[in-house]
């Protein structure tokens, strides 16, 4: 993205001027962790640095080891679906705005998620997962995702994964 800006403008960008991938791509896809990155870059409209920081926090929260010997893990890293779901909801809540349901500075073509125009029977919705029910120990880093700076409002952790608004990157 930095190189694209330099080629277009002929100068190095300031941090806030570096274009976001969602400004250049109509479709961003991935599977597995690539799907998480696609959602962060496309649906949540994050810049690359914020996406990298969020990804590291999410992986630390989701992939944890319960078995250690002198602080060194001796079994494979455990993946917990409930922790992944919690991490995704936290990321969506942290990086969406209640009214706009996106991270795009409230441009004019935003439709309220409560309006009848934005509702669709074919829209993808998140559902609570019952696939993995785990008990948390006192050592579990469930609160390991750091809280964002104090904001007056947070987004909806159950926001739609598919953004049906016009001129939005599809994931």
Automatic annotation (TrEMBL):
<feature type="domain" description="PNPLA">
    <location>
        <begin position="19"/>
        <end position="101"/>
    </location>
</feature>
<protein>
    <recommendedName>
        <fullName>PNPLA domain-containing protein</fullName>
    </recommendedName>
</protein>
<dbReference type="GO" id="GO:0019369">
    <property type="term" value="P:arachidonate metabolic process"/>
</dbReference>
<dbReference type="InterPro" id="IPR016035">
    <property type="entry name" value="Acyl_Trfase/lysoPLipase"/>
</dbReference>
<dbReference type="GO" id="GO:0047499">
    <property type="term" value="F:calcium-independent phospholipase A2 activity"/>
</dbReference>
<dbReference type="GO" id="GO:0046486">
    <property type="term" value="P:glycerolipid metabolic process"/>
</dbReference>
<dbReference type="InterPro" id="IPR002641">
    <property type="entry name" value="PNPLA_dom"/>
</dbReference>
<dbReference type="Pfam" id="PF01734">
    <property type="entry name" value="Patatin"/>
</dbReference>
<keyword id="KW-0443">Lipid metabolism</keyword>
<dbReference type="GO" id="GO:0016020">
    <property type="term" value="C:membrane"/>
</dbReference>
<feature type="region of interest" description="Disordered">
    <location>
        <begin position="133"/>
        <end position="171"/>
    </location>
</feature>
<feature type="compositionally biased region" description="Basic and acidic residues">
    <location>
        <begin position="162"/>
        <end position="171"/>
    </location>
</feature>
